[in-house]
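Action item from last week, closing it out:
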Amino acid sequence: MERSGSAFCPGHISGYFRPVTGKTPAETGSLGAGIVIHEGVEACVSYADETMVTVLQLGADDTVIARLDSSPPITWLLDRMGVQAAVLTRCHLPISAGFGLSAAALIATALAAGALLPEPPGLMACAALAHEAEIVHKTGLGDVAAAIGGGRDCRLSPGVGGKIRRWHDVTEPLYAVTLSSLDSPSVLSSRDRLDAVMRAWPGKCPDTVHELFTLSRAFARDSGLILPEVGEVLCECDRTGVLASMTMLGNGIFAYGQRAREVLTEYGHVYELQAAEQGPRILNRGRP
């Protein structure tokens, strides 16, 4: 029996979404469109006498920027899997900023924990548990379904077994700035906010990257989720002809193309991102 394992899952930037409430967590989720990004979360899992979770956000030189010593969704996930373990997750993007890191951490943890078991569950089984953890804890709706593959995505039905279209046409870099964190449960638990989101839903998949940004920007405006500081940055992107919208759900901006870096630099640290070519993967199946 393996004693430790590690896995990686890419993050996901959602441009727009529409919540779907089903009879079960598996049937609950969202429709929506976004981009799976190459930056994500690495999870290292090893057997322990009691479950412990450490979440690290790292800088470019791997110095620790932020640390959390608990994660209720991850603890819940491990309990469902019947695994007691010490979990360390590592990421280089800001947490609670609209990069789909809660979903990525759950998928990576499930894959790494599954590698410890005599009969490891497959990716879809791990993703189903990760999706359920997101729904139960109101940390996300559709990022798990998106992150199990790469490219630009459009989710046509909710849950990890739902229909999803993917394109690999994001040929230029993405750039992102985070102005502050945004607590996803505060939005996903608000009936008024969700009603506004439902009304703003564009009702279609974007055929091109340009249309993804156009529809995302209209959704951000019509949903009422844009805070003034985000609106200021988006106005400057408009003025300079840069495709940009708000990260969902995060108090930040993602933009497309080389000119975006220069514009966003005025507003904070700029993260350069690429579209991911593939979804999650096991890095190390551990040692006996």
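Closing note: The chain has two domains: 4-165, 169-273.
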